[in-house]
Amino acid sequence: MENLLELKDLYVRYNVKSSFYDMISGKKRKHVHAVNGVDFEIGKGEIFSLVGESGSGKTTVGRAILGLLDRNQVIGNILFNGKDILNAGRQGLKQYRLNAQMIFQDPYQSLDPKNTIFQIVSEPLIVNNITNNKNELYERVIAALNQAGMEPVKDIINRYPHELSGGQRQRVAIAGAMVLNPSFIVADEPVSMLDVSIRADILKLMVELRDKNNVSYLFITHDLSLAWVMSDRIAIMYLGKILEMGGSDEVIKSPVNPYSKALIEAIPRIGAKSGKDNVRIYGEIPDPINLPEGCVFYSRCPYAKDICRKEEPVLKEIMKNHFAACHLQ
User: Fold this and answer.
1) Which of the listed CATH numbers 3.40.50.300, 3.50.50.60, 3.40.50.150, 3.30.70.590 matches domain 3-324?
2) Distance in angstroms (rounded) separating the CA atoms of residues 133 and 309
3) Average pLDDT for consecutive 10-residue bins of the chain (329 residues)?
């Protein structure tokens, strides 16, 4: 499979505001280490999932990929069709953003309440000077809403977001992302704010759009079972690092890292019994300002050894296209 996107040694640092005492005492400025050396690639037409609990850095990766962060905060290489977008000029970045779009988590906040559905979906076309022809603009908006499963479109196009249901709002958000015919979409928890009865329809729509338009997705979620159903490959993140990555079935059925095992065992299953061998983790993610030495999961891992505290494990291939970072493998 030909790669559309490649991340190489990606780091994201956020500056922490210094106190007056720190400034006058000359203390070294502190940083939040949000992403710490992430590497992966996404093929054309592939759905790649980033999974992890809150604070793992998965949304920050998505925002960095789309160029939504200050460039001074991002270190590494983000290659899109072989071109590094972090070093792209203004014109190159503009062209990239025509091909890369985002579906946000909350359709109640991502849609402008003052605009009609037509204005929301047509805005990307107008801002990017795609067309100034009113008839063509109308036709493209109608086509995007139809593609997103909005029916009947003519009854909805002049409504405002507050007049729609949650599922309809997310379909409008998808239409707004698809109206430019992008080749890559970052979907950040796209169904977490929706009722369970609606989620299946939205996920089915996303897969249908992938199959029809050969769109690639970076699917960001905390729900491992959802990632298993949706994606071709899964990467499990913890404290800014990928601890395991591989094909969906391989990661779910043959996990290596204890953190992966704990997430998988937390998936509800009919008839499953809790046993003494189940992996359980306790506590919170460590402070991202003062990262622990060695393995980032050491303080919560039930199998941690001395080497885990002293040496950071390297992500390496343990079987074909299945990678894990763990001293216990």
Assistant:
1) 3.40.50.300
2) 63
3) 93 81 67 93 96 92 93 94 89 89 87 94 91 90 91 88 90 92 94 84 90 94 92 96 96 93 81 61 84 90 90 92 88
